[in-house]
Structure formats: structure tokens, C-alpha cells
Amino acid sequence: MQQAMVIMNPSSGKAEARDYIRAAEEVLQGAGYQVTVQETAGEGDATAFCLQACAECYDLVVAIGGDGTLHETMNGLADQQHRPTLGIVPMGTVNDFARALQIPLVPEEAIQSLASPRTRRVDMGRLNDRLFVNVVAAGSLAGSLSSVSSEDKSRLGFLAYLKEGIKELASNTAHTLTITHDGEIWEGSSPLFIAALTNSVGGFEKLAPTAAVDDGLLHCFIVKDLHLLNSVTVSISLLLGNLRNHKDIIYFTAKEVSVRSTEQVQTNVDGEQGPPLPISLSTIPRHIQVVVPED
Ligand SMILES: Nc1ncnc2c1ncn2[C@@H]1O[C@H](COP(=O)(O)OP(=O)(O)OP(=O)(O)O)[C@@H](O)[C@H]1O
């Protein structure tokens, strides 16, 4: 019999994940799996459970939680020889990875699609010595995005990030960043650098509309010194899915990028606070197999 481990974060989103365990077990048992449920109690648990699933050669690991739970679960798959297929039931407030893979955001529907026979191989990102699934941001704006409260995320979604971002822009802080990729070096003042693996960032699916989950590329945006006034035109370009063509944005794709600064600069990784600069980023093409809904 095939083995499935369900890793569930009871605190994700509106703290309703526990209510869906029974339904997930039923669908997986119906699909022929013997199911083990593991509930996280805090940071690091999802990674530890996933490492156990790799070591014990589970066939499937299902993450029930938000992007943070998914980030931790996928870090357990990093350099393992046996990597189970991944199933996702999005329960967070943003759920970027699920959006990028067209996994339903309604938990009941996502649970039904766990029995889908369709899978996709997707890229992972590497940041220094850990993995990321969706996006890395660096700069003064990235630091402020880490401070968006869960309450605001639940209430306002993407607008919560915009609210924090505008507050930060008003204080007009930018750092000197040195960004190296493919033998090219950019150095200048910037409030924000973004490297996205998928088209969905902060719940907003038009940031990098050309990014595919399996193109092996980091889609990078350098926001040149931004003032409140031109931030309006940048926001409009963002809404139109045309950010990469804005005159104050430098857009490029790369397989490897490094970002450093002589100043103390914060990062945000998959929506949570990351390590300070310097960082080295790269892609691990088609590293993970994910269950996706049937067409
Ligand atoms: N039982 C628990 N109680 C409180 N926090 C937990 C528990 N289990 C895990 N965590 C923490 O929850 C965080 C991940 O939350 P997750 O991202 O899944 O939900 P979210 O923040 O509501 O969603 P999103 O990232 O989409 O906004 C991790 O930092 C993890 O350490």
C-alpha cells in the first residue's frame, strides 16, 4: 500500500486546518494511501516531519497550511535522495504557490484534487543554504513587508503589503545594492529587489506574468530609487501586469544572482523574514513533483 504523510499547521490562515483533516484522510484513503497525520507545533516541525517522510520513503507528503508551512515542508525535501510527491491544501492568507499551480484556494476543492493522477515537476529556488518556493525580496521595502501582520493579511490580502509598502516609501529609505548575474554587475540605490520563481507574489498574480513554475529561471526586478510620486505609476504598471517595462524598473531573468550591500539590509523569503544580505540565489530546475488538479 502507498504511504501518505499529511503535515498540518493548525495556526495557518484562519486556524481552520484541523477541520479538514478527516476529509483529507478520506480522499487519500479512497485513492489507496495509508495515511499518517502530523500536526506542527511551531517553527521547524514541518521540515522535520518531511525529512522523516523522505527517510521512510513515503510516496506522498501533503502540506495543509500557508506559504510558510509549504516553505518549511519543501525545505525537508531539499537534498534528499527519495523525495515524495507533494500535495498542497492551501490554508494561508496568500497561498502564492497554490495560485501559481492553479490548485483550488477553496480547501474542500483542493482536498478533492489530492486524488488527481496529474503531477507537475516544478523548480525550487536556493538561497544560501536553504530552499525557497516562491519569492525572495531584499531592501528596505522587503524588511517592511515582513512586518505585515497576519490580521492585516487575512483582512486586506495583497493590499496589506501595499499599505506597508506605501508607508515605507513615504519614509524614502533606499540602500545601495550590488546585484551580480551572468557576468553583469548593477550597482545603485534601490528600495527593493525581487526574485520570483512563479507568477504569483503576495497573492498578486500579475507581478511576473511570464514566469512559469518549470522554466528554471529567477524573474528579477530591481526597483530604481522610488519616490511616492512615481510609485503610483509603478503600481499601475503592476496592476496591468506590465511592471517589467516600467522606466524605473530593471527586469532580467537569470539562473544565478547574488545581492550584497555595504549596509545592513533585510530580506523576505516566501513571505517571512529572511537572512540579511549578502545572499546567493539559484534555481534547482524541476526538483519537486507536485499533485495538480486534472484539466
Ligand atoms: N501549532 C502552531 N502554532 C503557531 N504557529 C505555528 C504552529 N505550527 C507552525 N507554526 C508556525 O506558523 C508559520 C507558518 O504559517 P503559515 O505560513 O502556514 O500560515 P499563515 O502565516 O497564516 O499563511 P501565509 O503565509 O499565507 O500568510 C511558521 O512560522 C511556523 O513556525
TrEMBL record:
User: Metal-binding as a keyword?
Assistant: yes
Write down the EC number.
Answer: 2.7.1.-
What cofactors does the UniProt entry give for this protein?
Mg(2+)
Q: What class of enzyme is it?
A: transferase
InterPro entries, from UniProt?
ATP-NAD_kinase_N (IPR017438), Diacylglycerol/lipid_kinase (IPR005218), Diacylglycerol_kinase_cat_dom (IPR001206), Lipid_Phosphate_FormReg (IPR050187), NAD/diacylglycerol_kinase_sf (IPR016064), YegS/DAGK_C (IPR045540)
Q: Which PROSITE patterns match?
A: DAGK (PS50146)
Give the molecular function GO annotations.
Answer: kinase activity
* Domain DAGKc as annotated: residue spans: 1-131
Provide the alphabetized UniProt keywords: ATP-binding, Kinase, Lipid biosynthesis, Lipid metabolism, Magnesium, Metal-binding, Nucleotide-binding, Phospholipid biosynthesis, Phospholipid metabolism, Transferase
Query: What is an example of a Pfam family matching this protein?
Result: YegS_C
- Gene3D superfamilies given in the database record: 2.60.200.40, Probable inorganic polyphosphate/atp-NAD kinase, domain 1 (3.40.50.10330)
Q: Show the PANTHER family listed in the entry.
A: LIPID KINASE YEGS, SPHINGOSINE KINASE
Q: Which family does it belong to?
A: Belongs to the diacylglycerol/lipid kinase family.
**Protein name, UniProt field:** Diacylglycerol/lipid kinase family protein
List the lineage, top down: Bacteria, Bacillati, Bacillota, Bacilli, Bacillales
